[in-house]
Amino acid sequence: MNSNLYAGCCGAYCRTCKPFLDRACKGCKIGFDTGERNINNAKCKIKLCCFRDKNLDTCADCTEIETCNILSEWYSKDGYKYRKYKEAVYYIRKNGYENFFEIADKWKNAYGKYQ
Is 21 helix (H, G, I), strand (E, B) or coil? Predict the structure, then answer.
C-alpha cells in the first residue's frame, strides 16, 4: 500500500491517530484509492480538491498551496491542530514524504513535533 495514503491531504497523519487506530476513522483517503468508498460522497472540500480533482497525495504537492482559499480557510480555524496540520504540509513540501514519515511515526496523535 502507498504509505502516502496515511498522510491526510490537509497534513493530518493517520497511522498514529487514535480514532484511526481504533478503526473509528478510515482516514482521509483509504478506500477512496481502491473505489471501496465513493470519493464523490466525501464532504471534505480539501479531500475533494486535492485527492479527487488534482490526484495529489497531499496539499504539499499542489502548486496553488499559497493561494488556495480552501486551505487558508481550514488553517485559519481556531485550534492548535490546524496550525500543526499546516506545519506538516509545509514540512512535507520542503523535506519530502520519507522524512515526514520518519518523524511522524513517533507521534502519538495526528500531529506532533519535528525534533
Answer: helix
